[in-house]
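Illustration 12: Phosphatidylglycerol lysyltransferase.
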Amino acid sequence: MTRKNKIVLVMMLLIGVIITYFSLRSISLKALVSDLIKLKWGWLIVALISMLASFMMEAVVVKMLLHRETMNFPWLDAIRVPLIEQLFNGITPFSSGGQPAQLFALVQSGVDAGRATSVLLMKFVVYQSMIVINFIFALFIGFHYVADKMHALSFLFLFGFLIHFGVIIGLLLVMYWYSFTKKMVKISFYPVKRFIKKERITRWELVIDEKIENFYQESLRLKGDFNLLLKIGGLTLIQLIFYYVVPYFILLALGQKNVSLVLVTTLHILIVMIISLFPIPGGSGGAEYSFSTIFSSFISNPSKLVLAMLLWRLLTYYLGVVLGLIALLISPHKVESNKSQ
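Figure caption equivalent — predicted structure in token form:
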């Protein structure tokens, strides 16, 4: 980690402490302790296992993609990749550090940078596709519910969907209309040429052209391996489901009864979409507010609601950050090839 990353990590931990303090200041300590004692720890362990299973599914995806590249990639190294991704997603705005961190982890394990980029491109395409599919499902089931609870922020759900959907459209354009996409990208630079130096524009164009070319070449391989694409898509969907159901198990741990698994999972999908729009690393502040507002319908007790929010953040955010820090300390093995290259 760079010095800047370490500073941001400390800042995020401090923000977490501050948010926790403000969440607890109006809550009776006696009531909170009582709720902790009454927790059904079995369900909380299930929530923890579900979160760990989400990381494991992503590790399986990484291993399968590298196996396609004729590599015997060790399981320990495959598990390091999503954990390091979680760490850097958690300490960078809009989770922008996750992709470079995964590339670093793969190269550190001896994977050629070109192949690592190829693997991560395929993984990214499939992941974005599954995010959009899940969100469309969630919009149909839970948007009206959220709109009633959060009038001011309901438009963010649609905005978030449009961003993710736009990413998928862009990727599909590169895959199936390559020449048109390159022309449109070049045209999009014309309006800004009056305000930015020509040398910088040229540099940006070269970088974007290279990324489009790399993705296009990878997309040709992607379309040629449809069976693998289906398998990766299925595993990614399972990965996301394990993550999205965590609040349901937390509610069960708090003794809530007659809770709808589908509705809770749907609402969590929408909350995650809101978090992705906040520029603060981890969506701090927005995440806690969104969760507390939406899930107040399920938990009327203020101390239980705060406890549910804290447990949710511990499992879905801080757990990944801590495990990512541990993963950084583990020395990777060097990858081996199944056949001569």
